[in-house]
Amino acid sequence: MSLWFDTARSHRITSLPGHLRRRAPLLIDVLPENDLVRHHVNLSRKNLCVDSSFYPLGSCTMKYSSKAGEAAAAERGFFQAHPWQPDTEVQGVLAVLAELQADLAALTGMDAVCLYPAAGAHGELCALKAARQYFRLKKDTGRLEVLVPENAHGTNPASASMAGLRVVVVKMNSAGRVDLPDLRAKLSNRTAVLMLTNPNTLGLFETDIESIAREVHAAGGLLYYDGANLNAILGRVRPGDMGFDMVHVNLHKTFSIPHGAGGPGAGPIGVKAHLAPCLPGPYLTKSMFGHVWTPAGTESIGRFHSAYGNFLNLMKAWVYLRLLGDDGARRVSLAAVLNANYLQEKIKQILPVPYGAGRCMHEFVASAQTIKENFGVSAMDIAKRILDEGIYAPTVYFPLLVREALMIEPTETERRETLDHFVALMKLIVEEAAAHPDRLHDAPVRQPVRRVDEVRAARHPILK
Ligand SMILES: *Cc1c(COP(=O)(O)O)cnc(C)c1O
Question: Percentage of residues in the chain with pLDDT exceeding 70?
Fold first, then answer.
C-alpha cells in the first residue's frame, strides 16, 4: 500500500538535485485500502452534497461538478507538476493557465486576468489592493472609501476594510435596486471604488448600471464587479461592457469546480488595462521558447499566492469551458435563468416572494415571515426540515432586506423533474408548518447530526 508514497517514482524527477532527494522511504502508517475507502465513504454519507442531492443554496451556485474535470486534474502530468519546475518542463500546465486567462478575459470583457486568488474574498482583497495602488501611483491618495450597497455579500465590506479602506453603505430602493440619489450623495473625491453585484443578491438586474457607471467614473472612482456568481449573464453581458474596471469570478461557483470539502476554491480577478500593471506577479507571458513566467514591475502589488495559484482547480474550470464549447456559456445562463424563473413562479404559490413581481435572474428570495407570524415556524425550521428529505437547504437570513429569507438558486444543471420534486416538498413542508409546527422545530431527525445549539456552540466551542 505505498501507492501515494512511491519514492522510486518521485526519484524519477531527474531535475531535482541529488542532495534534495529523499534517501530513505517515508515513514507513514499505512492502512489497507478497504479501511481507508470505508472511512471516507462513511464520512461522505454524513453529508449532503451536489453529488447526492439537489443543492439550491442561493448565491453559492452549487452546480454539478463534472467528473471530466476531476479526471483531467488527476492526469499525472498535471497533478505531479511541481510549482518550481523550470518553465520548459511544464509547458502544458502553463498553456492551460494562459488559455484560461484568455477565456476569462473574453467572458468578463477585461484586458488582463490574474489567476492567483484562492477564493472570492481573496480576489476582492487582491483587486482592492490593486485599486489602492492605482490611486497611490496617481498620487490621488485621499480616496479611501469603498461604497457597498446594503444587500452586498458580507465579503465585500470585509475585504474593503482588510485592504485598509473605509466602508460606506449605499441604500437600496423599494424595487430592490441601488438607490441612485443615495449613491449620488455618497460619491465624492474620497470615493475609491463602488462594489456591485449585478444581478444583485435579490436576483435582480441593476437596470441603471450605465448611469451608475457614468457617475462613479465622473467622481473619479472605480467600479468593481462582484462576479462570484456569473451564472445569470455568462456569454450574454460582460462586466467590462457595463463599465466595470475590475471583477472577480468564483471558479467554485460559475465555473463548476467543487466548493469547500471538494478542495480549495479559486477566485481569479480581471481588470481593465489601466489597472493591469498593479496586478500581482509574476506574469505569464509568451516568448520564443513558449510560455514563461516574467517578474512583475515596480507598479505591481507583489505576490498574492505561491506558485501558480490553485492549479488543479484552475484546470477543472478550463475543462468546464472546453466542455461547454463556443456557445455553451450562453446556454448556461439561459438554463440558469429559466430554471430560477420556473422555480420562482412555482414557489410563489407556496410562499411570498417580496421582490418577485417581475422576472428574476439566476436566483430569487422567498420569505417565511407570514409562516412565522401564523405558526411560529421560521426560515431556519424550514431549512432544517428540507434536510430530512435529502435535499440541501436554500440560503437563509440573507439578504437582510427580506425577513425570514430563503434564497433559492437552482443553477443550470438541474432538470425539471428535480425542480418539481423540490416544489412538492416545499408545499408539503409549508402545509406541515400549519398542522404540526413541532415537527419543523425538531428537524432534522433523520440526519447524523440533529439541530445544533448554535448559541452554545458559539459560547462554549469544542475546537478539537
Ligand atoms: C460567494 C460569494 C462571495 C465570496 O466568495 P468566497 O469564495 O466564499 O470567498 C462574494 N460575493 C458573492 C456575491 C458571493 O456569492
Answer: 96
Topology of domain 326-459, CATH:
Aspartate Aminotransferase, domain 1 (3.90.1150)
Residue owning the nearest CA to atom 8 of ligand 1 = 120
Mutate to test the pocket of ligand 1, among 59, 246, 411 (most ligand atoms within 8 A of CB): 59
Cα–Cα distances in angstroms (integers) from residue 208 to residues 158, 180, 234, 362, in the given order? 26, 8, 19, 19
Atom of ligand 1 nearest to the CA of 123: 9
Does the pLDDT of residue 64 top 80, yes or no?
yes
| Range(s) within the chain of domains with CATH label 3.90.1150.10 | 326-459
pLDDT score of 406 more than 50: yes
For residues 385 and 349, give the distance between their C-alpha atoms in angstroms, rounded to a whole number. Answer: 19
In the chain, where does the domain assigned CATH 3.40.640.10 lie? 67-323
Residue nearest to atom 2 of ligand 1 (CA): 228
- Measured at the CA of 248, the angle between CA 391 and CA 287, to 5 degrees, comes to 125
Give residue 57's pLDDT: 96
pLDDT of 229 higher than 50: yes
Ligand 1 surroundings by CB, under 6 angstroms: 59-60, 119-121, 153, 155, 197, 226, 228-229, 250, 265, 267
C-alpha cell of residue 437: 409546527
Instruction: Please report the pLDDT score of residue 261 as a whole number.
Output: 55
What is the whole-number distance in angstroms between the Cα of residue 151 and the centre of ligand 1?
A: 13
| Mean pLDDT taken over the chain | 93
What's the CATH fold of domain 67-323?
Aspartate Aminotransferase; domain 2 (3.40.640)
